[in-house]
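Meet our chain:
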Amino acid sequence: RKNVLIKCLNKAEEMRPSFGSLDYNVLSNFCEKLFLAADKNDRNEVITKKTLQMFFTSKIFYEILNHFKNLSTEENKKYVYAKYKTIYLKKCFDNNITPEPGSPQNEDAVSEVDKRIDDEDKEEEEQITNDKYEHYEENNNDYYKGREKLGTQSKGTEDSVDFNLSLKHAQYAVNALIFEDRDTAKRELKLSLSYLE
């Protein structure tokens, strides 16, 4: 699996110069279509694991879109709702509970997910602000080796798949590609995949 993704990444790098400027509206439209398809399944009571995957994928693509441009109010609502439905449906399937279709009866549930997202963003901003970059500048590649070691240690202590850490490192890989740093992108992608095994 990893080799296939690495080959795709290399092929994408080769193809990238042939593309013109990026139109993020295409990605935005894709996110919306995926979200609406998942929402249609949900509201028509066709709630399967495929519906869960569609909401989850929609959430991921909205997060990727957010790296390139600020989400509009409508896009942010869809992102928060997709994140809520992903969590809700996963809990239902894990506990053999029949999920309720449509919006939650308790609107506070979505607000709670939105609040948690804001809290996570604030914590991440504080962590970035408090980081000491001198260590990074002195050791260059040791920084990434240390992160890989941390990733392997935490992977060993957890038995379950960690989607959040996987997504975070996948986003690091995307950011590295933006800056045309192929080695970092590969390293982050490998680390991201390690959380899914």
In short: The longest helix spans residues 108-130.
